[in-house]
Structures are given as structure tokens and as C-alpha cells.
Design brief:
Blueprint (H helix, E strand, L loop, with lengths): L4 H17 L1 H11 L2 H23 L9 H20 L1 H4 L2 H8 L2 H8 L10 H7 L1
Helix pairs in contact: 3-4
């Protein structure tokens, strides 16, 4: 049985979105019992271990040294920034306000990309952000 790349991408995307959708309720429960910084560190460790396993199984080459700094910056933002900013609203806000706060993160991410000096974005995209 062969599956097209488009269908595979759709299925994998659906799985990813479903898993990501479950992280907010689980974070809310975890913050009630555990330190938010521990949750952030645990998520970073799990993500790093899973990524390493996938890279080793697929036998991907080590990136060139010129790519290390951008990769470190991105890893810091995604592995530490997102989990910490996801857990932080739960320290003092109700679930509704925490959800509203977290839903602003993708907009912040997409609005920071056009500010990169090497990125050119369409005028319509920039206008939609404001």
C-alpha cells in the first residue's frame, strides 16, 4: 500500500496539531502539582531526546558549523521559550485567560519573522498582522 506524500503530510500534520492541542490542558494540570520551571525543563529534555533519536535513526549528517548559532537560537526559543510562556499564564490566571494569552504566541512568532533582515514577506501578510 502506497500513500502519497500529500496525504502523508496531511496525516502527520493532523497528528501534530492533535498532540499540540492537548498540551494546554495538560500544562494546566501539571502547573497545579509541579514547578513550572521543572515542567519547562522536562519538556525540553523530552523534545531533545526524541529529536536525537529521530536524527540517529534517519542517519542525518551534523549541520555545518555556520548553522549552529541560528539552530541554538531557534532551539532556545522553541524548547524553552514556548513551554515557559505556556506555563506562565497558569501561575496566576484562570484557564480562559491563560488560553487567550497562549493563543497570542503564534501571532507573535509570525510577526517577528518579517523583522529578520534576510526575510522578505508579502505586503498583504504584514498588513494582516497589524
Amino acid at each position: 500500500m502506497s500513500i502519497s506524500r500529500d496525504k502523508l503530510g496531511l496525516v502527520l500534520g493532523l497528528i501534530g496539531v492533535t498532540i499540540f492541542a492537548g498540551t494546554l490542558p495538560v500544562t494546566k494540570i501539571a502547573v497545579g502539582a509541579l514547578d513550572p520551571w521543572f515542567i519547562t525543563a522536562a519538556r525540553a529534555g523530552i523534545a531533545g531526546a526524541a529529536s536525537l533519536v529521530v536524527l540517529l535513526l534517519l542517519r542525518r549528517p551534523v549541520p555545518p558549523r555556520s548553522a549552529w548559532l541560528p539552530l541554538i537560537v531557534i532551539a532556545f526559543a522553541l524548547v524553552l521559550g514556548l513551554p515557559a510562556l505556556s506555563a506562565a499564564p497558569h501561575w496566576s490566571l484562570s484557564s480562559q485567560y491563560a488560553t487567550a494569552a497562549r493563543e497570542r504566541l503564534p501571532a507573535a512568532t509570525s510577526s517577528s519573522s518579517p523583522r529578520s533582515p534576510r526575510r522578505r514577506t508579502a505586503t498583504r501578510f504584514r498588513a494582516a498582522l497589524h
